[in-house]
Write a structure and sequence with these properties.
The structure is a homodimer. By secondary structure, chain A is mainly alpha-helical. Chain A is built from six helices and two strands. A two-stranded antiparallel ribbon of chain A has the order 1-2. In chain A, strand 1 and strand 2 form a beta hairpin. Chain A is elongated, with a radius of gyration of 23 Å. The structure holds a DNA duplex (30 and 30 nucleotides). Chains A, B: It comes from Palleronia sediminis.
Chain lengths: ~130, ~130
DNA sequence: CATTGACCTTCCAGCCGGTGGAACCCCTAT
DNA sequence: ATAGGGGTTCCACCGGCTGGAAGGTCAATG
């Protein structure tokens, strides 16, 4: 299977697949003409990676997850540990964004949005002492 | 004022301040010895930038906000527009993360996290057809 | 058999918003 | 004179790709 077919089947762009090979996440064979020659297992791995990435796992986590996936001696505790750490990072990010959102929404709400120059948003940015 | 003092007063690392000069957000004078020589207005601008960045505005937005801030002929509508766009992007990001979080939390919950290899997390990544 | 066009290859550059480090200059205190 | 704590420039790197140039390969045409 050539990279185009694999891209279609895995849902990942060809560029990304080449990149994943470059950083050692997959290692497809090569045909005599130099083209990458993908096996079903590669497609499977790539789909796995696509789903892990879609859940927000970083490349390093993906590497670990893939390794655990292929390791019969793994424990589910190892996998869970990675996922829990990631969950914490997501929660932290959500909390951060939620705080931003609250401040921003308050400012947007306070701003008339008309032709006049007076603007609570700029006022807040220019001098944020007193409130968060 | 030298960059170190400005860093302390604005809360931004000296590296970042140099970077902001490089990309044209600020333009401090230079002393005879080549050192950057910051005025109060520069410190003010940097603090403004720091707060805008803390609200998640991108550098381009910061540039626009700074420009509007210094423009007496601005309208609050222009400022509000930038903020509303940004608010939408934040909401989209929160929604994305919240969805990730939901899936991930479900998987983590379903995983025993013990010494055995069976793991719903890996199972889901390996074959995610049927559920989101 | 030559050409077209879709595919594949490699390599280099860029995105965002900095951050780290090397190599060097400047200023003050001892 | 020297030590140290500033400052300066420049270049490389982070994540995770993405775009594009330059060129090789292949199947189907005229």
């Amino acid at each position: 299977m050539n990279i185009g077919d694999v891209a279609e089947r895995s849902g990942l762009p060809a560029k990304t697949i080449r990149y994943y090979e470059e950083i050692g996440l997959i290692a497809p064979r090569r045909a005599a003409n130099g083209y990458r020659s993908f096996a079903e297992a590669d497609v499977h791995k790539l789909a796995f990676l696509g789903r892990a990435r879609a859940l927000g796992f970083g490349i390093d986590d993906c590497r670990s997850l893939l390794q655990l996936y292929g390791d019969d001696g793994r424990t589910s505790a190892e996998v869970k540990h990675i996922a829990e750490d990631h969950l914490e990072r997501i929660d932290a990010k959500i909390a951060e964004l939620t705080e931003m959102r609250a401040t921003l929404a308050r400012l947007v709400h306070a701003c008339a949005g008309d032709h006049r120059p007076d603007c609570p948003i700029l006022a807040d940015l220019a001098r944020a002492e007193g409130r968060g």
